[in-house]
Amino acid sequence: MRVSTQVRIVFWSVASATALLALNTALSAAALIHLNGMHIRMISPVQLAQVRADLTSSLSMAAVSVLVLAVLTLFLRRPSSRIRYAVMALGPLIALVTLCFLVGGPEWAVAPTGNEPDVLKAEYASAVPSWYTGPHGVAGVVSAALLIFVAVFMVRADLREYYMDAGYDPSRPYKSWVERTGGP
C-alpha cells in the first residue's frame, strides 16, 4: 500500500472520529437542554443531579476531545514524529475515556427497576430520551474504534519512516522503502 494512501487513511479516520465526537457533543448539549426544560414531578433530586452531572461530564469530555483531535488533524499530514507520538498516545486515551463515559452514562441514574408507577417510568424515559442514547452510543463506540485503529495502524514501518523528522523535502513526494526497493 502506498504511503500517501496510508496517510490519507489515518487522516480521514481521525477526522471521522473528530466528527463523531462533535456529534456526541451536540447530542449531550441537546439532552442537557431538554433535561433543564423538563417539569420534573417524581424523579428524586439525587437522581436528577446525577443525570445532569453525567450529561455535563459527557458534554465536556466530548468537547475537549474534539478540540484536541481537531488540532491533531490539522497537522496530521505533515511528517513529524511528535504528531505521530501524539496520535498514538492521545488516540487510545480519548477512546478509553469515551468508552468509560458511555458505560457510566446518565441512563443508569434513571434506570427503572420495574416496580415504579407508570408516571415515574415515563419521566425516567423522558429524562434521558431515546434520541440521545442510541446515536450517542453508536457514535462513541465507532469513534473509539477509529482512534484505536489509527494508533495501531501508525506502528507500520512505512508510516514510522514517513513521520520521521529528518530529511523531508516537500518538493519531492515521499517514497517508502517498499516503494524504493520494489518490495511486496
How does the SSE layout of this entry go?
Blueprint: H1 3-36, H2 45-75, H3 81-103, H4 118-127, H5 130-153, H6 157-162, H7 177-181
Helix pairs in contact: 1-2, 1-5, 2-3, 3-5
Structure characterization notes:
The chain crosses the membrane at residues 55-76, 83-104, 137-155. Keywords: Membrane, Transmembrane, Transmembrane helix. The protein has 184 residues and is mainly α. The chain has one domain. Helix content is 72%, strand content 0%. It has 7 helices and no strands. The protein has helices at 3-36, 45-75, 81-103, 118-127, 130-153, 157-162, 177-181. Helix 1 (3-36) packs antiparallel against helix 2.
Q: Any key phrases for this structure?
A:
single chain, 184 residues, mainly alpha, transmembrane, membrane, transmembrane helix
Summarize the structure.
72% of the residues lie in helices and 0% in strands. It has 184 residues and is mainly alpha-helical.
Number of domains: 1
Number of helical stretches of at least 4 residues: 7
What spatial form do the alpha-carbon principal axes imply?
elongated
Poorly predicted residue ranges: none
Terminal residue distance: 9 Å
Return the average pLDDT rounded to an integer. 85
For the largest beta-sheet, the strand count, sense and barrel status come to: none
Number of strands: 0
* Structural class category: mainly alpha
The arrangement of helices and strands along the chain is HHHHHHH
Radius of gyration: 21 Å
Helix content: over 70%
What is the beta-strand fraction?
A: under 5%
